[in-house]
Amino acid sequence: MTMIVVVHTGPVTVEPLKAQFAQQLPDARVVNIVDDSLLADVRAAGRLTPEVTARLFSYMSNAQAMGADLILNACSSVGEATDVLRGMIRTPIIKVDESMAEQACALGARVGVVATVSTTLEPTARLIRRKAVQHERKVDVTECIAEGAFEALLAGDGAKHDDILRRAIVDLADHVDVIVLAQVSMARLVPTLDALPVPVLSSPHSGVAAVKRALAQSDTRAGAALV
């Protein structure tokens, strides 16, 4: 059975990704590693720290030792650590937002990024700019923080979180060609945004789709090696 280990920096990303795995890879065994101190430490420092990267390395090393076929990094705030760890971990690592960033660059030159914490907003914007350079596209990234939404979510007020976030997305839609939701926890709003004049991208669906493609490519290479 295919084993996928997902590394989370908080509990809010577990259910959205679990739902996508059930839909797209129902036969896979999905193991969740959750350490909510990772995001808390990144927010406290205002940036990704060597200590957080070291802890991520330990979790991904454990995933490798467990025999995982693939590791999914579920948090954009620590996504840049993956760029370092890919050179240290043999097991393939997918970033949950990488495919979403590529889609955004393909959909328009004016990309809006919405987040509820700056430590997620900034690395997501950098990722989109890097993908644009890789694909030789010119993009202008507009960054937007939905102030107070994350605090509402932590306090258990999901309705307030969604209301603040929805207003920020609607306001931004008039100024961009595509909107990127920088956090997995935002994905639940997408079905309520159909009336917007621009597409809204979230990472759970595209992130798990990237995992599925990577596994298929691995199987293809393995099959070719046996011929």
UniProtKB/TrEMBL annotation:
Q: Which GO terms describe its molecular function?
A: amino-acid racemase activity
Which domain of life does this protein belong to? Bacteria
Under the heading Pfam families, the entry gives: Asp_Glu_race
Q: Identify the taxonomic lineage of the organism of origin.
A: Bacteria, Pseudomonadati, Pseudomonadota, Betaproteobacteria, Burkholderiales
What's the protein here called?
Answer: Asp/Glu/Hydantoin racemase
Q: Which family does it belong to?
A: Belongs to the HyuE racemase family.
Under the heading Gene3D superfamilies, the entry gives: 3.40.50.12500
